[in-house]
Design a protein that fits this description.
Elements lengths: L27 E5 L2 E6 L2 H11 L7 E4 L11
Antiparallel strand pairs: 1-2, 1-3
Length: about 80
């Protein structure tokens, strides 16, 4: 499972485009193909949610969705 923002497809195919994940800012998201299958506070939680919602499908990637940078807000 990849932790990169742009999961690559196997077999030398071009990378799969990511869906709009802005609604999941600050969370881990597990993807099945181009669809969100699970969301969680950790990568493992997102994968578990994906396995529960789509037990027969393979998770293609697990990605962290960064929170947007807000002007005037410092960490």
């Amino acid at each position: 499972m990849a932790d990169s923002p742009q999961p690559s497809a196997s077999s030398g195919q071009p990378p799969v485009p990511l869906p709009d994940l802005s609604a999941y800012a600050g969370c881990w998201v597990a993807l099945v193909g181009e669809k969100v299958a699970g969301v969680g506070a950790t990568a493992e939680a997102a994968q578990l949610a994906a396995r529960r919602s789509r037990p027969r499908e393979r998770i293609h990637a697990t990605v962290w969705v960064p929170e947007p940078d807000l002007p005037g807000v410092s960490p």
